[in-house]
Amino acid sequence: MTPFARLSPENRPIAIAAIFVVVIVLFGTVYTLSTQGTAPMLSPGYLLQQLQIGSFLGICAAGMMVVILLGHIDLSVPWTLTAAAMMATTVGGPWAIPTGLAVGLLVGLLNGFGVAYLRIPSMIFTLGVDSVLRGLMVAHTGGFAPQTTASPLMRFLAADRIAGIPVAIFVWAGVSLVIAGILTRTGLGKAIYATGAKEGAAYLSGIRTRGVIVAAFVISALCASTAGVLLAGYSAKAYQGMGNAFLLPAIAAVVLGGTHILGGRGRYAGTLVGVILIVFLNSVLSIMQMPEAFRQIIYGVVIVGMLLVYGREGGSRT
Amino acid sequence: MRDLILRNRAFAGALAMFLVLFLGYHALHPRGFSTAVFIQNANESVAIAFVAMAQTIPVLMGGLDLSVGAVMTLANCIASHLVTGSPVQMVLGMIVTLACGTAFGLMNGLIVVYGRIQPIIATLATGAIAIGLALIIRPSPGGEIDGDLNWAVTNAVFDFAETYGLADDGNAAWLQPFVNIPVPLIILLVIGFGVWIPFKRTVTGRTVYAIGSAESAAFMSGLPVRRAKIAAFTLAGFFASCGGLYLAIQTSSGNADVSQAGAYTLNSIAAVVLGGSSLLGGIGGAIGSLVGAGILRVISFYFRILSIDPLLQPLIEGLVLLVAVSLGALRTLRVKNRLELFR
Amino acid sequence: MQDAAALQGAPPTPYHEAGMDSTTPHVALEGVSRYFGGITALKDVDFQCRRGTIHAILGENGAGKSTLIKIMAGVLPPSEGRMLLDGRPVAFRSPAEARDAGIVCIFQELSLIPDLSVADNIFIDRPPRSLGLIDRRAQRRRSEELLARIDCEDVNPDTNVRDLSLSRRQMVEIAKAISKNPSVLILDEATSALTSRDVQTVYDLLGKLREDNVASLFISHRMHEVDALCDTLSVFRNGHHIETFGKGERTSGEIVRLMIGRDIEAQFPPKPAPVAGKSPALKVEALKWEDRLKGIDIEVAPGEILGLGGLDGQGHKELLLALFGVLKGVTGRIELGGRPYRPASPARAKRQPTSLALVPEDRKTEGLMLQLSIADNLLTPNYARVSTGPLIDRSRADTAIADAVTQLQIKVGDVTDKVETLSGGNQQKVVIAKWLIDDPDVILLNDPTRGIDVGTKQEIYRLMRQLADAGKAIVLYSTDYDELIGCCDRVSILYDGRVVAELDGERLTEENIVSASLNIPGGEAA
What we know:
The complex is a heterotrimer of chains A (318), B (343) and C (526).
Chain A (H helix, E strand, L loop, with lengths): L10 H25 L8 H26 L7 H15 L4 H22 L4 H20 L10 H8 L1 E2 L2 E2 H19 L1 H11 L1 H6 L4 H27 L11 H10 L11 H20 L4 H23 L4
Chain B lengths: L1 H6 L1 H20 L6 H26 L7 H15 L4 H28 L4 H19 L9 H7 L3 H7 L3 H4 L12 H18 L2 H18 L4 H27 L6 H17 L11 H20 L7 H16 L15
Helix pairs in contact in B: 2-14, 3-10, 3-11, 3-12, 3-13, 3-14, 4-5, 4-6, 4-12, 4-13, 5-6, 5-12, 7-8, 11-12, 13-14
Chain C lengths: L1 H8 L17 E10 L2 E11 L4 E5 L6 H8 L7 E6 L2 E3 L4 H6 L2 E4 L11 H5 L6 E2 L2 E2 L1 H14 L16 H13 L5 E5 L7 H16 L3 E5 L3 H7 L2 E6 L2 E7 L5 H9 L21 E8 L3 E8 L4 E5 L6 H8 L7 E6 L2 E2 L5 H4 L6 E4 L3 H5 L6 H6 L7 E2 L2 E2 L1 H14 L16 H14 L4 E5 L7 H16 L3 E5 L3 H7 L2 E6 L2 E7 L5 H8 L9
Parallel strand pairs in C: 3-10, 3-11, 6-9, 9-10, 15-22, 15-23, 18-21, 21-22
Antiparallel strand pairs in C: 1-2, 1-4, 4-5, 7-8, 11-12, 13-14, 13-16, 16-17, 19-20, 23-24
Helix pairs in contact in C: 1-9, 5-6, 14-15
C-alpha cells in the first residue's frame, strides 16, 4: 500500500520513524510561526542544544539496545547512571571518569553473571541490582545531594563546545560509532544477534552464549555510566534520582527504532532515529508548553500508534 | 498435607518466610504484639498487595504488565473525586473507579491481542497514558474522601461497626472474636480470594496457566487463548484499581505521582517473584503474590524497630530481593541437558 | 522387486471376520493424497477402519502413517480425496471438530500442559462444572475413575504433569483421550515411551474398547505388540497404502518385506573398499548419561561413515549431544584423534585439535536462526576464522560465504536474504555449510535428510562421501534405513541406550537393521 512495502523489515520502522521526526519538526515550526512568528526548531543553535541534551539519552539507549537485541532488558540503568556519577564526583580529579566507568563495569559483570549463569530473568535481576545500587548510594550520600562537584574534564565533555558544536554530541557520536561497529563489524556483534535470535542454535554453533550475555550487560552498564559521568558534568554535580528519567525513554527509543523487544532484530541507525524522535517530540511539547499530563498521554499514544503502524506494514510481527 | 506442601513448594516457602519475618517483627517490637501496630501494618500493605495480585495474572500468562502502578494511580485520582457525598454517591463512585481501571486493563488486553504488540511494550506505553489521565484528573495532590469511610475502613472491625452503628456499635457478643481484626486485611482477603479463586476455576483462568506453561499445547487442546489473554489484562486492571481505590480512602486524597507509580509497578514484579510465581509463566498464583507483597512490606517494617540506620533500608531491601531470586535459580544447576536452559 | 511385487499383486485379502465386509466401515478414506510443497506424503490412499477392531498401521519412517492419522484427526486437510464417517463425507477443520465427531488421537508429541495437574489436563477443554466454575471435586473423582480404568491408581490427580515420568505422562494422555468417549481412538507410537507394565495395561484397555465397539488405530514399531494385539493390519510405504490383511495371515518376515518394498532406489555414491588398521578419529567407550545412555561403545576412523540406526528414542540424539558437550554428567572414555577428550561445551568441541561439528536434529530451532540472513547463519561458528583481532574481515567473510554457497550448491537469491526464505533442503545445506567452513575432523549428523526432497538428499549423500574421502570421520544418525545402508560403511544399532548390533558389508541389510532395531534375535525376520 505504500512505498515502505519495498523496504526490508529492519529498515521500514527506521524510515517511518525518520518521517515522523520530520513531521514533528515541521509541526513545531508551523506552531511557532503561527504563535510567535519565529521558527526556532529550524535554527542550528537550537537543534544542537537539543541534541546536546539528547546525547545522555542517546548513550543510554545505545547500551540498552545491545541488551534488548539479546531479548533481555536492563532495568538497572537509572542507578548505574547515578552511581557512576556520584562515585565520579566523589573521587574527583583525573580519576573521576575512570572511577565512573569502573562502576559501570562492575555493575555490568554482576548483571551478566545473574542473567547468564544463574539464568534469572533479566527483568527481575537487574531490578534487584538497581535497588542495591540505590541503597548503596543512599548509604553513601546520606540521601542528600552530594556536595562534591564534577571534575573539569567532565565539565568539558558535557558542557563545552568545540567549533560551536557541543562536545557531548561528539561523545555520543563516538559511543555510537563504537556500538555500531561492534554490532556490524565484530564477531561479538554477530554473536549478539545470533544469541538473541535463538540462544539454543547459537550455543550449538559453538558460540559462548554466556560470555556474550555478560558482554552485552557490561556494554549497557558502561554506556549508562558514561551517560552518568556526562550528566554530572553537565549539571556540575551528581544528584539523587538523576537517572530515573532515562530508563523508559531509552527502552522506547530502542523499540521505536525497530529493534524487536524479544531480540535478534534491529539496527543501530534505528535506535539513533528513535532517540532523535523522542528528543524532538520533547522539545516540541516544551515549546508548546504542553502540561506534563498531556505529554505522558502523547508519549503513550505515539509508542502504541507507531508500533501498530510497524506491525500493519510488516505483517510478519510475531 | 505433605503432598500439598511439596506441590506448592515455592508458595510454602514464601509463606514460611513471611510468617518468620512477621512473627519476628512482632517479637522484636518494643511493645510486643498490638492491634494498633497490626492495623497499621495491614493498612500499609493493601495497595502493594493489590498491585502485586494485578501483576500476577499477566505474569502467569508469560507476559508482564508495566502499567499496573499507573492504573492504580489513575484509580486513586478518580476515587479522590468521586468517593464522597451521600452513601449512594460513594458506592457509585467506587463502582466507577473500579470500572475505569478494569476498562483500562481491557484496553491493554485488546492492544496486546489484536495489535500484536508485546505486552511489556504495550503496557509501558499505556502506563504513560494512564499517568497522563491521572495528572489531568488530579494536577496536584489532594481530594476529598468521606471521613467516616476513611476511619471505618482503615481500622479494626470494632471501629467499622461503631462508625456505621452495626452490631450494637460493635459491642454485640457474636462480633467479639473478630473486633480486633483490621478491616484492610478483611478487604484484601475477601477481594483476593473472592475474585481470584473463582477465576482460577474457570476455563479462562485455567487457560491463562496453560498459555504460560505451553502455549502451543493450549492451542492444540482447543482452549480459548485470545479470550484468556484479554481477561488476564482486564483482571489486572481490576486489581490495580482496587489498590488505587483503597489508597485514596486510606490517605483521603489522590496523588498522580509518576515515580510512585513506577515504584509500585517494579515492586509488584518483585512481590510476584517472591510469592513463588515464575516470570516465565504457568506457575504461581495471586495468593502467593499477596504473601510476596507482605514480605516486601514486613522487611521495611523492621527498620522502624531495629536500630538500623534508615539509610541502609533501600540497600537491605535490594539485597533481600536479589538473594531470594538467586535461591530460586539453584534449580538450573540440576539441569542435565544444557539445551533445556534455552527454552 | 520380486517378493514385494508378488505380494502386492495378490488379490485383496478378506478381513479376518467374515461378514464385516457387508457393513459400512466407520471411517473411510477415498483417494486421499497429501502434498507438502513438492513432497508427496500420501498418494491416492483408500483406507477403511471398522468399529470393534484394533487396526495396526505399519510402515517405515516416512511411509505416510503420521500424515494419514493427522488427516483423520483433523490436524491436516487432505490435498485431494475425501473422508467418510459412517458413509457420510466429513471435512474437519480442526482437531476439536474431529474430536466432536468422536475421533480422538494421542499424538507422539505430548499435548499435555506441564504446569497443570493431571486432573486439569484430563479435562482441559471441557471440565465438569457447577455454577459455571470448574467442579474440582467432580473432576478429581472422574479423573480417579479414568486412571483406575487404565490401572494408574498410583497417579495422584493433583500432581503436576511436569513431575510425572514420561511413561506416566503418556498414560495421562491416554486417560485424557478416553475421557472423550471416542468412537475412533488413534494411538501414534503411544506405547514407545511406556514401561512394559503400562504397555500391558494399554493392551487390556484396547481389548475392552474393542468390546465397546470402538475402533482403535494403532501405530507401533514393535512387531511383537502388533502380533499380540491387532485384528487387522495395514502396511504403508512411501505414501502408498500397500495392503490390508487380517491377523495371522502374514509372517513377520513377509510383513517386514512389505514394509521395505523395493520401488525407489536412492542413488548412493559407491563405497570404497574398507581399509583396516586406521587409528580411529573418534573412540567412545562405556559412555553413560542419566538413564538414556547405558554404556555406548563406538569408534569411527578418518574416511569412514558410521551409521547409527534403530527406533526413535533409543539414545541416538543423546549420544550425539553428549559428544558435542551439551549434556552434563556424562561418564565414560572418549578419545579424539588419540587424545582423551572431555566434552564440556560446543565451543570447546569445535576447538579440539581433532575438531567436532554437529548438524542438530531440528534445523529450525537448533540449527539456524531463521530471522537472520543466510550470510550471518553461515558465519555463526566461524567468527574467529574470518576476523583479524576483534574485527571481521569483510573480504575474508565474503569469500568463505561464497565458497560455502558454491560447494554445497545452495540456491540463493542473495546471501543477505533471511534464511527462512529458503526451502527446507537449502536450509539444511546452510546448516551443513556453516560447519564445513569451520573444517571439522569429525562430523556428527542427526538425521540430516529428514523432510527434504530427494534431489537434495542425493546431493547430501554425495557430499558426505566426498568429505569422508577427504579424510573426515562421519557419524550419521538416520531414521531412513535405505540411507544407512546406502551411505554408511558400518551401522551401529541402538536399543534402549546400548549398541545391540554392529552391521557392515554383507550383513548390512534392511532385514538385519529392522530385526536389530526391534531387538529380535538376528535373522528371525528374514
